[in-house]
Amino acid sequence: MFNLNNKVALITGASRGIGKGIALVLGEAGATVYITGRTVEEGQGNRGLPGTIRQTAKEITSLGGQCTALRCDHRIDSQVKEVFKLIMNKSGSLDILVNNVWGGYESFNDIPEFMNKPDFWDIPISLWDDMVQSGPRAHYVASALAAPIMIAQKSGLIINISFIAARCDDRGVIYSVAKSADDRMVACMAHELREHDVAAVAIYPGGLVRTEWVMRTAKNWGNLDGSESPQYTGRAVAALASDVEIMQKSGKAITVAALAKEYNFTDIDGKQPGV
Length: 275
Known about the structure:
By secondary structure, the protein is α/β, with parallel strands linked by helices. Helix content is 40%, strand content 13%.
């Protein structure tokens, strides 16, 4: 479906969920894939969720791809710098950075308590740090490390995984601010990177993605008929990375459904959720 041969990609937060889905698609498309995450042994995942970076790498290899799994806590800048150092030492380039890592729910139970507390003054202040540090701040640090590499190459694509909450007033103050920060980051990075032919784009997955957490709590979500797989977002990333006119989209925030319609790709079940 997509040809990313000779491309080098880094997907952050790929032990499971959307990050894993993106990594699987890019690996199958021929990219040399690097993934980061904190879970290296089964059972160590947050809230006991399944999935590890090693398992993701193994699945990519089984699809005929190349993947290197790197343990990294994106809240620790020194570890992030080591990731980029290793990639450059091993591959010498970086074409695609997908900022997917997100740890904003870790202080909460399976159904995050903040979803049932619409008033921001009832939410622990610590949630701000959880969401901002492991979301937009982590995305900024990785982007700042990737930019000089891509500028030197005179090409590259940075993608922030965001969400429609960035444009909503009823998704919670902190969550919406974190996603808005991802969108504004892309717009401002695109402005500064345009003269270097490096693109920055934000992607919105659909309202419900069948991640490990969603599937474990499926009874709480009702009908999953309109949901999408993590690979659907992966195909959106691959489509953008394959587009020779990608600079025309730089600075924009785009839904996966809109990209599926434009590039004519489907989810793994042949459907186009949201189109």
